[in-house]
Amino acid sequence: MKKQEHVAKKSTNFFRTCSRRPLGKTSMAKVAFLGLGVMGYPMAGHLLKKGHEVTVYNRTAAKAAKWVAEFGGSSKATPREAAAGQAFVVACVGNDEDLRAVTIGPRGAFESLEAGAIFIDHTTASAIVARELHAVAKAAGKGFVDAPVSGGQAGAESGALTIMCGGDADDYARAEPIVAAYAKASRLMGPAGSGQLTKMVNQICISGLVQALAEGLHFAKRAGLDPDAVIEVISKGAAQSWQMENRHKTMLAGEFDFGFAVNWMRKDLAICFDEARRNGASLPAAALVDQFYAEVQALGGGRWDTSSLIARLEAFSALQKP
What we know:
Layout: H1 3-20, E1 30-34, H2 40-49, E2 53-57, H3 61-71, E3 74-75, H4 79-83, E4 88-91, H5 96-103, E5 118-121, H6 127-139, E6 143-146, E7 149-150, H7 152-158, E8 161-166, H8 169-179, E9 183-190, H9 194-222, H10 227-234, H11 242-252, H12 262-279, H13 284-298, H14 309-319
Parallel strand pairs: 1-2, 1-4, 2-3, 4-5, 5-6, 8-9
Antiparallel strand pairs: 7-8
Helix pairs in contact: 1-8, 9-11, 9-12, 9-13, 9-14, 12-13
């Protein structure tokens, strides 16, 4: 076998192996975590519990102080200070501009991130910003992995998130044992931006599933059926989904404080629509559900979780004549 062919085969096999292997153990590492929201707060805690040396940064310093009091570790006043001397810097912030602010903005992490260090981004953001920051990092000899998560607040707290990643195979291979602290599964989906594109698929699917479940439960109630009995039966068949198993009871009870907020789902869907305009994809169902979420916001439900689509149906029916 020629040397070039051997190297190419070895590289391909390495990519396949590191993109599929189960999450495993890792030795202690120096890690900075930027962003202590409902997701980042417990995720950073899992890193420290696994034995890593963790330094945190949060825009609201009081939240960082609270985290240190609860878990230990240390906090810094800026992303630049937090990233200095770290082997890994992890971020989980709100959107593209928040991410740019903590990376390439004034006093951002990229100012002090050392050559050879890996930046792992768990923000749900655009594929554009992922590719942009990947290029900046690689030009300076640093790694960047876009790694949005699925599993919500409950998954972050239990350390059972699913992580979809984009970036270089060798950077992912180094990052994978770090994210294992709070993940049940992780996979490299392709080059930079591929993690964010996969998360878009996830959000598109969820929007349709939740709307269908809301309509089904609403219909069952209006038809005089016992909706719990209906779910007990149909959840054993082809209609079964995570949303059905975990959200139907709270939806029926009108309780919507169980995870990902409507405001954030609309932000994510806007990212999906922007990407669809670039790649030519058609998303009619997602666009319709986005309009329904806008109506939930008008009901005052911007901070309700995404299962609150049923509240819109109930409110609409209440206005109709019997």
